[in-house]
Each structure stands twice: as C-alpha cells, then as structure tokens.
Amino acid sequence: MTKTHSSDATPEYRWQENIENQFKSSRWNSNLLRRFTVTITLLTLTVGCIPTQQFKSQISPTSEKNYIPINNCDLTSDKENNSQISLVSQNSNSTQCASIDPFSQAVRFATKAANLAQSARTKQQWDRVAQEWVQAVAWMQAVPPGNPRRAFAEKKVTEYMRNLAYSQQQAASAPSQFNPVSFNSNILDTQLKLYLSYVATVGTPDILIVGSSRALYGVDPQKLQRYLVNKGYPQLNIFNFGINGATAQVVDFQLRQLLNSNQLPKLIIWADGVRAFNSGRVDRTYNSIVASEGKRLLLSGIRPQLPQAQSNFPSTCYKFPKPLNIFSPTRNFPGETIEVNYSTTKPTKYTKYSYKPIKQSSSNSTPNTQYSTQPIQTVAIANAADAIDANGFLPVDGQFNPSYYYQRKPYVAGLYDGDYARFYLGGTQATALNSVVNFTKSRNIPLVFVNLPLSDSYLDSVRWSAEQEFHGWMQRRARENGFKFLNFNLYQPQLAKNKYFFDPSHLNRYGAGAVARYLAATAGIYWPR
Question: What is the pTM of this model?
C-alpha cells in the first residue's frame, strides 16, 4: 500500500589523526543527543586503572586536582592494546590504583576507535569501533563541571557521539551471515529480524500489533503499555509488527506461516483500514512476498531464525523499566480518564475539500480512468529501518499542514487513487480475513481490529463512501465471528485533527500516542493479565 524510501546519503565520517590537539567547533546536535542520552545514562562506566608509576609518568602535575580517585581494583592488561587497562573486579584484597584523569582516558579510547575504523569492514569490527566510542563518550562526559577542560570536553562529547552514530549505522548495515533470508520487503525483513531478537530477549509479547504502514506509524506500543499500567494492568510486553503495504493477505501470511506457535502473542491488535481489504487493487506487497526466496524456503520447511547464543548462559527474559516520556507534550494527552462507548456515538460527517484532483494520462490513454498511488501513498521517511524503535514502532514528529503539503504535492482524489481502484470488499482479501479469524479462534487468541483515523482532507466523497461500506461490512463479520471491531475513523472525530498526522493518511507520534490512549480506555477488550 505504501512504500518507504530510504535516503542513500551517508554522512561523511571524519577521523582525527591527532585527537589530543585538534579542536573543532560544532553546535549541540539535539536530535543526536536525544537518541543516545538513554544509552549513555544507562551505561555502567567501565573505569580504567593504571599502575601508579606508569600513570604518573603520563600526566601533567598541574591537573592532579581534577583526577577521579579509584581504589580497591584488580588490574589486567589488554592483550590487543597494552595501553588499555580494564577494571576486572572490586574486592578488599585488590591492588591500589592511582587517580584517573577522565579526559586522558576519553582521548585514549577515541584514538583507538579512530584507528580501528580505518580497517573496519565486518559487523563485528564495526561493533568493536562503536564500543570504543561509547567508552570515549562516557569518559569525556565524566570530566567534572569545575574542570577547566569541561567546555572543550562538551564539544568533544558531541563529536564522539556523531562518530558513535556512524559506527552503529555501519554495524547495522554491514553484511552478516546470520541475516534471515529476504522476503523482498526491506521493512518486513527488518521487522522480522527485530521480532525474532525481541522474542529471544524479552520473550513472546503479550500483545502483537499488525497491519500496514498505518499500524507501523500509528500505534505506539510503549504508550499503550503505560496507559494500561495506569488502569491497573501489569506491565505487558507489546510489539508493533507493522509492515509497509500489508494487506489482509499479508497479515494472514504473517500470522499463519511466518511465525511459529511459540512466537504468537496472547492478544492481536490489527490496526489498519479499508485499503487493506480492497480486492479490486493489485496486491503488490503480497505478490512480492510470494515470489521471494524466503517464501520458497518456508514452503520447503525452513523457517527464518537467528543464531543460537554462543554461550552457556541460561536464557533470560528481561523486564525493562518504563520509558521516559520526553518527546510527547502532556498537553496533547491530558490525564483525565476516557471511556469509549460506541452505543451513544455517531459517525462524523466528512468535509469535502476543493483541492484539484490529478488524473493520470498517457499517449495510449483510453476512456478508462487512470489511477495513481502517489503522492498520497508515498511515505518518504529517510532511513526508516534505522528509525524503528526496539518495539517495532516507527515514530514521526512532523505535523500535517494541508495548505503547505498540497503546495508541494498534488492532491490525488479518491476517484483516481490506486488503493481504491475497482473497490470490492470480497474476493482474496475477504478470504484472508476469514483465515485470520479462524486461525486466532482456533488458538484462543483474542482479535481486535482497529480502523485507524484518516485526516479530514483525505476523506473526500469517494473515500468516505468506502469507509461507510467498510464499517457495515466489518461490523457484520465481527458479530458473526466473535472478534472486536473499533472504528476510530468514523466514531472518534477527535483523532482526525491535523496535529495527529504527518501526511493525509499516516499518524505521527502524537497521533500514535492518542490511539494508544483510546485503545487502553476502550471497554470490552480482554487485555492479558
């Protein structure tokens, strides 16, 4: 349905040959700092200890008052680099160590990282480079506020963090023999690998969110977890397995074939909309998956899997603390309780916009209508795979402004929108819906379908008509088959505000948080206990 374009641009990575004497002025990069603040905050600082005589020969006596005293530590030499000494243990019988100058330690790690980067090629080598930059950042951040080197150190922290970011990007993109085989979808391949890793680390999620890019951008798992905790539920593990272009056929494949029984959750939230059920359109995403090497191997009985841990440690499932809410303003999500009751609500009325529709034409045009799937369906997020968080969610900050948006991109009316072409709620997509419903019922997994909101400017008369038909169609199937259907598009006009979208049909992080809030407040959902 939608396609995400990744930027081909790679930032220039500048390594310093003489880091100790080089000064480069740079302004504080807030986005980068936000991305790595949690990493550095949670880092347990690995303190290097140097024997007293050797240490004294390497430092200037004028800066002794700025050292950090470290006592009672055993020492061991690094076989790869004798200049790097690591802390092994702390006990009462350990060797006494001299005080440590954090600035010198930071420079030492930075120098090693820069040297290693010159020859790094594999994922493992770039991981090692990133590890050294993490140490360099942590030590440079440890320079005390009263130290005359502090201002310079703050600039070096920013510089080192950029280098760390580049190293992490290289490690993520470097070839690996353990990558699962491709299903001809970059986002599906990325999400599958992340999900398998999530299950190996945290365990099978209690709640799994599936759907197209509208789900990927439109339901925040961590916000949903937090709102449920506030309502008295335990801290549930929630993963967003949204895939760009996913239709009902793709979700059916995802649940019944791609995942095994041990990887299925206790509750499934299918978040999407009418476009995923139009059997009249060409299902490019599903057709691409069917033609993939991954699908061929599945048919032969070979399932995608990550490597087994190379250690004798027992498997451990981790329970992570609640995330800090540092991005979403509380004014968008007031604290009062919402109870969603569909018995007293009525569908909103659409507002017809006067944007000029674009009709596609060609030299071989016929009287038949030509359809376009862009620009409304194009989601241009650079490095989308890298932007997906640990819970499979892709947050976007931008807010939709119709006046500005349609100055840059022509408005495509529903009559010429390829996703609504030859609109038909039946056929292959209806069969896939029945398959998913029967599959979840046979495994006693509750299914909740959420029709996600669309912006007012997107809902012209053609799309509005499709939404009304879809509403009645899904209501009947929900009653007949015992799953829950929530229509946040027709029955929650508060969610149609432009501030909740980054384009006409995709929610931003604030809209994703609002959807999570409304989900947590909806009565009749049997959340896992």
Answer: 0.70
